[in-house]
Amino acid sequence: MAIPTLIFLILLLHLLFASQPCHLILTSAVDGRWQLLQTSIGISAMHMQLLRNDGVVIFDRTDFGKSNLSLPNGKCRNDLSEGALKVDCSAHSVEYDVSSNKFRALMVQTNVWCSSGVITPDGKLVQTGGFNDGERRVRVFSPCSSRDCDWQEIPNGLAARKWYATNHILPDGRLIIVGGRRQFNYEFSPKNIAANTFNLPFLLETNDKGEENNLYPFVFLNVDGNLFIFANNRAILLDYVKNKVVKTYPTIPGGDPRSCPSTGSAVLLPLKNLKMADLQAEVLVCGGAPKGSFAQASRGNFIKALKTCARITITDPNPKWVMETMPLARVMDDMILLPNGKVLLINGAGSGLAGWELGRNPVLSPVLYRPDRKIGSRFKTQIPTTIPRMYHSSATLLRDGRVLVGGSNPHAFYNFTSVLFPTELSLEAFSPTYLDSKFNDLRPKIITPKSMSGIRYNKRTNIQVVITGKVAENLVSATMLAPAFNTHSFFMNQRLLVLGNDKVTTCGNSAYNIEVTTPSTHNLAPPGFYLLFVVHQNIPSQGIWVKLR
């Protein structure tokens, strides 16, 4: 059957089934699979974070107007902020339970619009900043098995207003908050003794007048303990302790902006060969909008998005960007590290940029990036969804290997009619090809350690798995993934470590013992909760939660 015909039939089936009262709707079977989980969770998924109890915390903003989900037990918020409902009895945050495919309302007390977050070493979601009454708030969500926990807020938890900022966990377990609108600085949480902000002129230098193009900077912890910070079209390596720039990276060829609102995305590629003294780290930046796109879109001219990626070895003494071409131009893309080390590009638009009504031509097809292949053979287009995911979309990797996708609201309020891209309240899941049943005999199943086990630094650790098919021992590897906070096309604190295997031993009855060595330093892997996977011939197991300490 020709591919265009197949896609037409898939879309037709989706329309037929979507009218039926069922929760799960399969929409494809080639190069991945789409599944509609919820037609509406009542809010639009602007921010998303997977928790160690396999819940996903989702929230949008408190001044969107009334959502489609009421707060429980007659709860209401009083809000004196401009543009907000003075009394709002609707929810603007939910916790989605993956195993049951159900969700419940949560209550945020101040505006979390365009905020940031990260999972701390104790497994709590710490979320910072926002708009108006939320701009200096720190919020904490502690996952609980009873599913009755809710947001706690700390007034004046920040030294400066933080809106469109980026968070990252540091090797000592603290949280750093970098940048934000008109905030050319960084600070720490919890506040240190000085409780000050620290100036970062790089953020002022990368601010394009009238457009900015340096919001939500891409921040990664380098293997030497310094921070790689990318904004607009270039990057620095920052010693945040001494507040000193220790390396300046070249501008990406072409000079087009990649940061919000000319929003591209970025990942720290999987860290491998962890025992080597000269460990390498690479960053990949993809998509964005050409120079001048904001001014043009404001006049109704929506310029085609960038079709390029730029890759750089940030540990190289003389680093240079290497350019690659994607199959599809994309702005407002999300880049997700998969358990097998591949990168999934998903969501976004083909023209325009981030902002109210400024995106056009939704890109429905995800693209798989295979970093270990030669240039020219790294990208593979996946089956498309039927739901546009434009500005204010989000996604996250789940423990079972699926990618949860939600959101899209390019409007100042909830708007469901008479617009190009109505506010989207649905949740769907994308299943990469590695989840196809034809790979079941290659798929490892982790027997030990049990989920929530503790592991220590630089220790030999045994992982016992069952693999029913023929095992290629040289193609067995363990990986560790830090759960990331996603909003505005960036996954804060996203990090994948490839532990490899030191030895594979056959135990009989399809059981195998895999000996691995855990990361040796906090610079490689800050303490906290990780998802541990075993990958065999590029087919990952389901993950288990482990706590590195």
Largest sheet: 6 strands, antiparallel
Distance between the termini: 53 Å
- Rg over CA atoms: 22 Å
Quick one: CATH class of the largest domain?
A: Mainly Beta
Describe the oligomeric state of these chains in a short phrase. Answer: single chain
**Spatial order of the strands in the main sheet?**
8-7-4-3-38-39
Relevant CATH superfamily of the largest domain: Galactose oxidase/kelch, beta-propeller
Task: Give me a quick take on this structure.
By secondary structure, the chain is mostly beta strands. It starts with a helix and ends with a strand.
Molecular structure report:
Residues 46-434 form the Glyoxal oxidase N-terminal domain. This is Aldehyde oxidase GLOX. One of its GO terms (cellular component) is extracellular space. It holds the Pfam family Glyoxal_oxid_N. Residues 443-547 form the Galactose oxidase-like Early set domain. By secondary structure, the chain is mainly beta. The protein folds into two domains: 33-435, Methylamine Dehydrogenase, Chain H (7 Propeller), CATH 2.130.10.80; 438-548, Immunoglobulins (Immunoglobulin-like), CATH 2.60.40.10. The protein contains three helices and 45 strands. It has a six-stranded antiparallel β-sheet, with no helix packed on it. A hairpin with a 2-residue loop joins β18 (227-231) and β19. The termini are far apart.
